Amino acid sequence: MTATASQPTTTDMLATARELGPTIRQYADEAEQTRQCPPALVDILHQHRMFDLFTPKVYGGLEDAIPNLVRVLEELSIHDASVGWVVGIGNGTAVVSAFLPEDIARSMYTARAVSGGAQAPNGRATPVEGGYRVSGRWPFGSGSTHCSIIVGGTFVMDGDSPALNNGMPDFRTAVFPVEDVEIIDTWHVSGLRGTGSRDVEVKDVFVPEGRMLKMYGGNAVVDGPNYRFPTLGFLALTIAPIPLGIARRAIDELVALASAKTPMGSFNKLRDKAITQVEIAKAEAILRSARAWLFELTDELWDKAVRDVEITMHDRAMLRMACAHAAFEGARATDIAYTLGGGTSLYEKSVLQRCLRDAHAATQHIMHALPNYELAGRVMLGLDPGTPMV
Questions:
Q1: With contact defined as beta carbons under 8 Å apart, do 175 and 134 qualify?
Q2: Would you state the pLDDT for residue 163?
Q3: Which of 159, 151, 210, 211 is nearest to 181 (CA)?
Q4: Across 4-19, average pLDDT
Q5: Residues 117 and 199 sit within 8 Å (Cβ to Cβ)
Q6: CA angle 151-34-249, nearest 5°?
Q7: CA distances (Å), 349 to each of 77, 133, 149, 346, in order?
Q8: Alpha-carbon torsion 36, 39, 45, 49, what sign?
């Protein structure tokens, strides 16, 4: 049975994200210290349905248009990158709701459900009657401290080797209720500290056939533009806006600092120095250029998904590159602001040092990695992309 999605629309959630900005900033230090999204803030995000943006309307979600979701995540990240990150991961992982059999999706995606986990193929699944026995451990389970659903990338095994499906390893996304999962506190890191991205582990857990999803190359159960959009491209879009938001915050903080600070050995404000004027203008240009390209491509592919026309390999490759480009250019703009801040940037109380750490943590995600440029270059030159995961 195929569930029919309502036509996604642009909601007022971007305005809601802006209104939440001051509240999010109030919790930023607590998130940094506790290394997770504070429970009180999670509750506020639930009250404003920030984790329901992508879930289909037929399951009680908002099913917001993808371009609007991207803008919401950027806005949240201006106030605290860790909040933008966990909301992005929560909504990104909710893509499984559109691929699950309808009865399972309805039972799991109830009020205040939040998804998390990792797609890396660290799990091993042994076929048994009615499903699989799965074991595995996945790092980077962002938001796992407040998730009700955990996913894990898994190879179906044939003895000691992955089973093959059309010549490729049989890769599935296993979907677990959080009660089946051990969450291990490994998140002692330099940046994005408030994301609670702990390891998640399962040991010989039974997963029924309906919760072992063939998402890549498969068809969603729920039809609609959100779920016709390239899955990996969508997942990349749920984290690419975060470095853009970080850079926006860093530039704004530097502008405020430059009006107040007189550098050591100078009689003039930081804003009066020619180097400050040139470099902050460069940072603004870097940020706006990367942002414009990402949003342009997102809007183009969204239009194709709405019209249900082919989204080509070239489209997919360009989107993946634009997401990586947004991350690296966001970090470059942030670096400029941090450097201009001088010694002030070093102090824990400085937002600029947190922006620097968060921006460079974001560039380490596999969806932002340098091979995305290689993938795009291969496609541009008429070569095979070198991976089916596009």
A1: no
A2: 92
A3: 151
A4: 73
A5: no
A6: 85
A7: 18, 48, 35, 9
A8: positive
Do residues 316 and 348 share a domain? yes
Mean pLDDT of the 229-242 span:
96
3-state SS class at 115:
strand
**pTM score > 0.70 for this model?**
yes
- pLDDT tens digit string along 282-340? 999 999 999 999 999 999 999 999 999 999 999 999 999 999 999 999 999 999 999 99
Number of other residues whose CB lies within 10 A of the CB of residue 232: 19
d(CA 383, CA 222): 33
Token code pair at residue 194: 């408030």
H/E stretch holding 297 reads helix 274-307
Dist. CA 68–CA 187, nearest whole Å: 30
Among residues 79, 109, 139, the one where a domain terminates is 109
Query: Which residues, 6+ apart, have CB-to-CB distance to 155 below 8 Å?
Result: 121, 123, 124, 125, 162, 163, 169, 170, 171, 172
Closest-CA residue to 63 (of 9, 116, 1)? 9
Q: Which residues pair with 135 in a beta bridge?
A: 124
- One domain, residues 52 and 28: yes
CATH, residue 86: 1.10.540.10
CA 216 vs. chain centroid, Å, equals 18
* Residue 385 located in a structural domain: no
